Amino acid sequence: MISGKTTLVAHLGFPTESFKAPMIYNPWFEKQGIDAVVVPMGVKPEDYPAAFAALFRLTNIRGALVTMPHKITTMGLVDEVTPTAKIAGACNAVLKRADGTLVGDQFDGAGFVRGVLRKGCALEGARVLVSGSGGVGSAIAASLAATGVAEIALFDAYAASAEALAGRLRTHYPALAVSTGSNDPAGFDLVVNATPLGMKEGDPLPFDVDRIAASTFVGEVVMKSEYTPLLRAARDKGCAVQVGTDMLFEMIPAYLEFFGFGTATADALRAEAKISY
C-alpha cells in the first residue's frame, strides 16, 4: 500500500514496457515490511535532463534506477560519481543524500559478472567479446577486466563509442589486450550482447551464431523475453547461457545496500519476484 510516508525510487528509462525491476523490488519490499516503492518512469532522451532535475526536487525520493538510454547522460547530472562509474563511463544508480547532493554508481557489470561466475564460467585468462559500448556494455567490460580476463574485444555500431571505452580500459588495465571493430564471435570464451538487439520482433541477431562454438558462454542483457532469439540459438548449439534477468537479480543486493534498504540474496529475491514477460 502506497501512503504519504512511502519512499520513492524512480526507475528511469525509455521505453518502459520491458522493465522488470519493479516486479522484483516491490514484492521484496512488501515481504520485508519496507515502506518504499519502485516506480517506472518513461522519459525520452530529449526530455531527460529537465525531468531528472525536477524529479530530484521531490522531498520523498530516495534515488533512481537508471536504464537505457540514460546511463551515460546521467554521469553529467549528478554531483559525484564513484570510481566504478567513472571507468564504465555510465551510471545506473543515483542516491539522493540527506544534504540533497546526488551520487551516481554502477552495478550492471558487477551483477553480470557475479551471475557468470556462479554458473561456473572461468574468467581469469579468458578471451571475451562485448558487443555494445553504451552504458551497460561499458560497465560489463570494466567488471570483466577486473576479473583478470586476458583479452576484451569491443564492438559498437558507433565506432567512436567502442574506441572511447577501449581507451578507458587501457588506462586502468594496461596489461589487458583490447581490440575494437569486429563482432565476429569465433574463438572467444565468452560473448556478450550488450546492445538492444532482441528487444523488438524482427531484430537481427547481434552475432553470427554459426561462428559461435559450443564451448562459448553466451550472455545477454535484453530482458524483453527470458530467452531471446540469440540465447535460443546459442542453447541449440549447446552453449551455456545467461539470461538478462540474471544480471538484475545479482546486482539488486548491491542496489539495496546503496539505497539503505538492507540486503538480500539473489535466491531470496527470486523467491518473491513476480516477473512476467
What class, by secondary structure content?
A: alpha/beta
Please state the average pLDDT score. Answer: 94
Number of helical segments with 4 or more residues: 10
Task: Please indicate the percent range of residues in DSSP E strands (runs of 2 or more).
Answer: 15-25%
**Largest sheet, strands/sense/barrel:** 6 strands, mixed
Describe this structure in words.
The protein is α/β, with parallel strands linked by helices and 277 residues long. The protein has helices at 22-32, 48-55, 71-74, 83-88, 108-118, 135-146, 159-172, 229-236, 244-259, 266-272; strands at residues 7-13, 36-42, 61-66, 80-81, 93-96, 102-105, 127-131, 151-155, 177-180, 190-193, 217-220, 241-242.
Essential attributes:
277 residues; alpha/beta; six-stranded parallel beta sheet; 10 helices
Give a topology summary:
Layout: E1 7-13, H1 22-32, E2 36-42, H2 48-55, E3 61-66, H3 71-74, E4 80-81, H4 83-88, E5 93-96, E6 102-105, H5 108-118, E7 127-131, H6 135-146, E8 151-155, H7 159-172, E9 177-180, E10 190-193, E11 217-220, H8 229-236, E12 241-242, H9 244-259, H10 266-272
Parallel strand pairs: 1-2, 1-3, 4-6, 7-8, 7-10, 8-9, 10-11, 11-12
Antiparallel strand pairs: 3-5, 5-6
